[in-house]
Design a protein that fits this description.
By secondary structure, the protein is an alpha+beta fold. The protein has twelve helices and six strands. The strands form two sheets. Strands 2, 3, 4 and 5 form a four-stranded antiparallel β-sheet that branches. A two-stranded antiparallel sheet has the order 1-6. α4 runs parallel beside α7.
């Protein structure tokens, strides 16, 4: 799984590099600022390495310069595997730094600077709001082909999550959406609360990309691959494209970009968790 997540990020660099032109270095560079973090800057370093501090945290060094966040904090990460992954993002840059391809760095900046100044409870509340408008819980009544497609593709994932977490979510074609019980919300609230701040930052990022709490849980729990989760999040759009056609280059760019961000967020969740086996596995691969 870890190789595939890294592969998706690398594939996206080629596609995204062709999309964006040169621009000013963005003043801000956090997950909430991705719309403006599409700039390039001439590469100013030759070597990238990591170092461990006495307190156990890891730093990223560009030549002899210590990497810092947009907020001016020293860029430190909690474990070696995440440090290696971030250093790789900087190491693979060529003559120019393409910030829009560096999603792990962006997520670390967000966790370190916390630009919106939210605590865990506020992030959890924001994530739970997606359950009320979850992509796969809202169904169409027509055309019949799309109704059948949503049933066949979304229901198995929804049923799996309901069984996995012992909750009732349901789906609806009403504009009001399904009625989510307080018991279900409490279950998900407790589950989200089990993540540390860094992992929760990554999970909210994935939820935001897919616009679905259900798909995000299925992805992070490894029931779905990134490709599957992204395709399911775009099911109606893909149906319309197959029926009416599309602007091919625009579709491909959007797909690559969504896959790259979703893969980075998923990887960030696992690397920020307490599971040492995940970290060892990534380093071995």
């Amino acid at each position: 799984m870890w190789r595939s997540l890294v592969r998706l990020q690398c594939q996206a660099r080629v596609a995204l590099s062709a999309r964006y032109g040169r621009a000013r270095l963005p003043v801000l560079w956090h997950a909430a600022d991705l719309s403006i973090a599409t700039s390039e800057r001439k590469k100013f370093y030759r070597d990238v390495n990591i170092s461990q501090r006495e307190d156990g945290l890891f730093e990223i060094n560009l030549d002899r310069r210590k990497l810092k966040t947009p907020g001016g904090k020293l860029f430190t990460v909690p474990n070696e595997a995440l440090a290696v992954a971030v250093a790789t993002e900087w190491d693979v840059q060529k003559d120019t730094l393409k910030f829009y391809t560096m999603n792990l760095t962006t997520l670390c900046n967000t966790a370190l600077d916390n630009p919106t100044q939210r605590d865990k409870e506020q992030i959890i509340a924001a994530a739970l709001k997606f359950l009320e408008t979850d992509t796969i819980c809202y169904r169409v009544e027509e055309p019949p082909g799309l109704v059948e497609l949503q049933t066949n593709e979304w229901d198995p994932v929804l049923n799996w999550v309901e069984k996995r977490y012992n909750v009732i979510i349901g789906s609806s074609s009403s504009i009001m959406g399904p009625q989510i019980t307080e018991e279900t919300k409490d279950t998900f609230r407790q589950h989200l609360g089990s993540y540390n701040f860094w992992a929760l930052t990554g999970l909210e990022f994935v939820i935001t990309q897919l616009k679905s709490l259900v798909l995000s849980f299925a992805l992070v729990d490894r029931h779905l691959t990134v490709e599957q989760a992204v395709l399911l999040s775009r099911l109606e759009e893909e149906y319309q494209i197959q029926r009416w056609g599309n602007v091919e280059w625009a579709h491909d760019y959007d797909m690559y970009e969504l896959r790259a961000r979703t893969a980075a967020g998923t990887l960030f969740v696992h690397l920020s968790s307490e599971s040492s086996s995940v970290k060892r596995k990534l380093l071995q691969d």
